[in-house]
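protien #1 (seq + structre)
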Amino acid sequence: MAGKFVPKTPVNLDPPKDDPISVEELAKADGTEGQKAYVAIKGKVYDVSGNKAYREGGSYHVFAGKDASRALAKTSTKAEDVRPEWQDLDDKEKQTLDDWITFFTNRYNVIGILQGATNMA
């Protein structure tokens, strides 16, 4: 089952980091005007800069610079769903979120942990 989230082309990733990333630093990495693009999921911050979908005009740009845990769990690209709270979701949505974490972990570098995150467990 875990194999379904493995990239078709192998990705060389750096070891995950646990450097503190401030909410302000995350917000600046929104993929606009040449900025990096970061997405947080359950407080872990991923560098998605290499994927144009997270850049301005891309289909996942709504997630850039934010903790997108709830939206990913709900498979939603609605701006109002892009927020960190996920604990109140149903089991199916929680499993979907865990699947997204596996997907991101296999493709993008973890560059740090969002400071003050209350949604990690």
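ok now protien #2
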Amino acid sequence: MQTSLCALLLASAVLLCNTAPTGNSPLTVKILDAVKGTPASSVALKVFQRTADGGWTHVANGITDVTGEVPNLITEQQFPAGVYRVEFDSKAYWKNEGKVPFHEVAEVVFNAGPAGHRHYTLAMLLSPYSYTTTAVEMETRH
């Protein structure tokens, strides 16, 4: 059990240390499959922005590649300051892996602040019965 936990923590550290922005997208998503210890490919996701009335507007979607990322997920024009929700279709991913998942979706709600050009990386460690996320926010240079 301790060996498995150490391996999982090591894999998480590797995932989170490699958070350099890829491409020009202001939002990067990285997902690691906690069961296999590898990037989670073919995870569908949707990005929503909160509206003034408290509802949500769908602004982008994508599917993770073999690196567990979605290149060019959203443009800067589609990503003004505001509250965002990223919804991951974790159920479909685990069913495709032959597992019975607990969650229908995994989601992260966060505030993208108005402090100039920023890049956000959401890193997720995904298992059939849980998920853990962390975020890295960096100032970008144009």
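Strands lie at 27-33, 38-39, 44-50, 56-63, 82-88, 106-112, 118-127, 130-139.
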